[in-house]
Amino acid sequence: MTPDDPSPAEPARLRAERVTLAYGDTVVSRGLDFAVPDHAVTAVIGPNGCGKSTLLRALGRLLRPAAGRVVLDGRPIRSVPPRDVARTVAVLPQSPQAPPGLAVADLVARGRHPHQSWYRQWSSGDREAVAHALELTGMLDCADRTLEQLSGGQRQRAWISMALAQETDLLLLDEPTTFLDLAHQIEVLDLVRELNERHGRTVVMVLHDLNLAARYAHRLVAMSRGAVRAEGTAEEVLTPELLAEVFGLRCAVVPDPVSGTPLVVPVSAHDTAPAHGAAATGGGSVRAGPADAPAG
Amino acid sequence: MSAPAPAPESARRRPAGAGLDRPALRIGAASWPWRPRAALVCLAVAVLLAAAFLRALVAFDSSDVGLSEVAAVLLGGGDFGQRFIVLELRMPRALTGALVGAALGLSGAILQSLARNPLASPDTLGIGWGAAIGAVTVIVFGGSAGGISGAVGQFGVPAGAIAGGLVAAFAVFGLSWRAGVHSNRLLLVGIAVSLTCANLVYWIITWTDLQSAARAQTWITGSLHAADWDRAGAAAVALAVIIPVALGANRTLGALGLGDDAALGLGVRVSAARLVLLTVSALLVCVATSAAGPINFVALAAPQIAMRLCRCAQPPPFTSMLLGGALTLVADQLAAGLFAPTQLPVGVFTAVLGAPFLMYLIVVRHREARL
């Protein structure tokens, strides 16, 4: 897998500049800089409470930074009308709620909100966008079902369809694979990759599974205590040293036998020293990091 | 109204996506999604409302002014007595009933969507009783001029009701606000405010002199007997302004129904939209309350009944509005006619009519395992 790096000459369409993010008096991030790599799939990783979702919420205009600013296409996002933002950036929140009994087609139709007005509430363009979004996620056959009648994976795909119906170039997904079994996680992430490769969408997603992040994202961003600790390809970011620092996790990193991307193998307290015999090929040598490395 | 776009052939080719192939209903540049079932329900409710309105004009009291006489009066004929009965007695009452019910139905639909809870209504959120405090205060402290009629009655009571209702609405939403509205907290605070306001009203009535207490008691029973053109006209003017705003905000309710974050992501100015919708729904209740006193249950039941009939996930505002009007008119006719000459307050019958039907719908739909 070769990550297609965005050309560094062009400034990123969506970026956070020296943002301080806080909920009330609780500061999550201070003076954070982050640029969303264009036309790539970026995975944000980090331990619980490290500010991943908060950063995503700020980028999606769901959270107003206490200081600093988020810039979209060269303009401060707060000065762009919300409708225009919603036509450029779609956000899938971590735990979206739907009223009981809502049909999939109706949910996805709500994604057309930024394209509608009070008098033009449904057009042929809306219809096509909804149909297209459902087709992309393979949810056409479920269009008439209510969300309660769907499996977890289908429900997640229904929500992604809603974000797709917004027809935005940028897509921010907050833990799109939570509560899904492995097969459904793969299903959703395959879709994300397809959206990027076939339809040119820029995707930023918060993921907890490091191995899936390594496999599906072009770029990884590791966060810890509200700051970006490392940014780059999976090979650059997923090192035992960094994982020890960010997660406080002792682990070995070997090449994924299927994709060749880094595979993180945690070492628990009960395990003996990592198997030195498991010699890895190329640069993916087996290394174990110190368990008690300082996280800050 | 122009006809809906012809049913697409693709609907037949792709039966699985029937709900997806939703044609647009176009009127000039405006267009709405065409939902056959919702439109049919809406039409049926509109017919019911029209029938109830007509019946209110034809047979409401003991006088024998029947259909042909009413038709004659409406076309500009009839003798003086008939004109008086139809235009001065029956018409204002019917109009007030329809308007008040419509305002309550629409308000309930908005509040239930906003709170994301079917139990939210002006009754449970204390807005109705807040309006009642304002109105009763004016009635009691307005002295002899604060009667049901007169300048204070015409302007003071509605002003008092609007002030009281708005204060109650903002108090409830403000007190339950903790970085967002949690519907259970909202309902708890609402019920507390509602009970407090109700008891304050009764305290005012107990505390004041007999005459004022009697006037206030008549008013808070919630009845349409005293309806006249002053009240109907004032309510009509107020609602003519508020209702279009409320219906225009309908689209935003759909986005808000997905939670604050999702709504923000869809480009909704969530705080502003919620403020406008809350104010509008509180104003609707205040106008209704100042015209007819507190009428319970319509705002709770009409949106839920409309939602279940339309089989949609959120209360449809327009159909809820029509159904609220119809429910109130039918209830008023039962209240006036069933135990004649004793006139029961309309509020008694809104509950008697609405509750069993709502329960029936809930049970039936539950069996279908759709909700």
Automatic annotation (TrEMBL), chain A:
<dbReference type="InterPro" id="IPR003439">
    <property type="entry name" value="ABC_transporter-like_ATP-bd"/>
</dbReference>
<dbReference type="Pfam" id="PF00005">
    <property type="entry name" value="ABC_tran"/>
</dbReference>
<dbReference type="InterPro" id="IPR003593">
    <property type="entry name" value="AAA+_ATPase"/>
</dbReference>
<keyword id="KW-0813">Transport</keyword>
<dbReference type="InterPro" id="IPR017871">
    <property type="entry name" value="ABC_transporter-like_CS"/>
</dbReference>
<keyword id="KW-0472">Membrane</keyword>
<keyword id="KW-0067">ATP-binding</keyword>
<dbReference type="InterPro" id="IPR027417">
    <property type="entry name" value="P-loop_NTPase"/>
</dbReference>
<keyword id="KW-0547">Nucleotide-binding</keyword>
<keyword id="KW-0410">Iron transport</keyword>
<keyword id="KW-0408">Iron</keyword>
<dbReference type="GO" id="GO:0005524">
    <property type="term" value="F:ATP binding"/>
</dbReference>
<keyword id="KW-0406">Ion transport</keyword>
<protein>
    <submittedName>
        <fullName>ABC transporter ATP-binding protein</fullName>
    </submittedName>
</protein>
<dbReference type="InterPro" id="IPR051535">
    <property type="entry name" value="Siderophore_ABC-ATPase"/>
</dbReference>
<keyword id="KW-1003">Cell membrane</keyword>
<feature type="region of interest" description="Disordered">
    <location>
        <begin position="274"/>
        <end position="296"/>
    </location>
</feature>
<feature type="domain" description="ABC transporter">
    <location>
        <begin position="14"/>
        <end position="250"/>
    </location>
</feature>
From TrEMBL, chain B:
<feature type="transmembrane region" description="Helical">
    <location>
        <begin position="321"/>
        <end position="340"/>
    </location>
</feature>
<keyword id="KW-0812">Transmembrane</keyword>
<keyword id="KW-1003">Cell membrane</keyword>
<feature type="transmembrane region" description="Helical">
    <location>
        <begin position="155"/>
        <end position="174"/>
    </location>
</feature>
<feature type="transmembrane region" description="Helical">
    <location>
        <begin position="127"/>
        <end position="149"/>
    </location>
</feature>
<keyword id="KW-1133">Transmembrane helix</keyword>
<feature type="transmembrane region" description="Helical">
    <location>
        <begin position="94"/>
        <end position="115"/>
    </location>
</feature>
<feature type="transmembrane region" description="Helical">
    <location>
        <begin position="346"/>
        <end position="364"/>
    </location>
</feature>
<dbReference type="InterPro" id="IPR000522">
    <property type="entry name" value="ABC_transptr_permease_BtuC"/>
</dbReference>
<feature type="transmembrane region" description="Helical">
    <location>
        <begin position="275"/>
        <end position="300"/>
    </location>
</feature>
<keyword id="KW-0813">Transport</keyword>
<feature type="transmembrane region" description="Helical">
    <location>
        <begin position="38"/>
        <end position="58"/>
    </location>
</feature>
<feature type="transmembrane region" description="Helical">
    <location>
        <begin position="186"/>
        <end position="205"/>
    </location>
</feature>
<protein>
    <submittedName>
        <fullName>Iron chelate uptake ABC transporter family permease subunit</fullName>
    </submittedName>
</protein>
<dbReference type="InterPro" id="IPR037294">
    <property type="entry name" value="ABC_BtuC-like"/>
</dbReference>
<dbReference type="Pfam" id="PF01032">
    <property type="entry name" value="FecCD"/>
</dbReference>
<comment type="similarity">
    <text>Belongs to the binding-protein-dependent transport system permease family. FecCD subfamily.</text>
</comment>
<keyword id="KW-0472">Membrane</keyword>
